[in-house]
Amino acid sequence: MLRHSSSSAAALLTMVVVTTALSAQGTPIGFEETWALSPDRQKALATLIPGTSDWYYYPGSNATAAASR
Q1: Considering its fold, how many domains does the chain have in total?
Q2: pLDDT value of residue 69
Q3: In the prediction, which pLDDT does 48 show?
């Protein structure tokens, strides 16, 4: 009886892992990743909504990074 419940638990765990992995495939990346991986950060900055906290933060961060090069 113990062997049967162990294989059922393994099957359940496998199903949970596969379901989680498949649902993670459709997760869009956030602006942080878009900005960090963008070859042209000015284009990425143009997608921000004026007046939001990201709109204020990222242009300043970009200017600071450009000044330190």
Answers
A1: 1
A2: 73
A3: 92
Dist. CA 26–CA 38, nearest whole Å: 20
Which pLDDT value is given to residue 8? 75
Contacts of 41 (CB under 8 A, 6+ apart): 35, 62
- DSSP structural state of residue 48: S
Parent domain of 42: 2-67
What's the mean pLDDT in 39-67?
Answer: 90
Question: Which one, of 60, 50, 53, 58, lies nearest residue 33 by Cα?
Answer: 58
What are the CA-CA distances from residue 60 to residues 21, 36, 57 (Å)?
A: 36, 14, 6
- Whether residue 16 contacts residue 8, with contact meaning beta carbons closer than 8 Å, is answered with no
Look at residue 30 and tell me whether its pLDDT is greater than 80. Answer: yes
